[in-house]
Amino acid sequence: MCPPAATVHSRTAKVFETLGDRANSARSYAAATASRPGTTYARIIALDLVAQAEQQAKQGHIEQACTTWGRAIDTMAGVKSTRCERSNNYPQSA
Questions:
Q1: pLDDT digits (tens, 9 = 90+) for 17-54
Q2: DSSP states of the chain as a string?
Q3: Is the predicted pLDDT of residue 83 greater than 80, yes or no?
Q4: Which of 30, 33, 56, 72 is the S-S candidate for 65 at Cβ 3.0 to 4.6 Å?
């Protein structure tokens, strides 16, 4: 089971994303990532990092987005997941 705080942060990020609040969405994705143990939740962390990078890119924070995307790629190493494979289509248009 996911740590409750991480789940709340991830869901909050999705709400901010839906509302168009990219800055708070990116911050919430970062909090979700930091709230999960890396080895147990690598797939979820990678997906949150991809979403965070997308929000950063949409704000025009390209260097930040590239750094976050790099962390996502590193986290995906060894993860078998269709969602992670699909997320490799980044960058998406802003």
A1: 999 999 999 999 999 999 988 778 888 999 999 999 99
A2: ---HHHHHHHHHHHHHHHHT-HHHHHHHHHHHHHTS-TTTSHHHHHHHHHHHHHHHHHTT-HHHHHHHHHHHHHHHTT---HHHHHHTTPPPP-
A3: no
A4: 56
Asked if pLDDT for residue 93 goes beyond 60, the answer is: no
Residue with tokens 């969602």: 83
Task: Give the whole-angstrom CA distance, residue 42 versus residue 77.
Answer: 9
Q: Please state, in angstroms and as integers, the Cα–Cα distance from residue 65 to each residue in 1, 5, 7, 45, 62, following that order.
A: 29, 24, 22, 15, 5
DSSP for residue 77:
T
3-state helix, strand, coil in the chain (%, to 5): 70, 0, 30
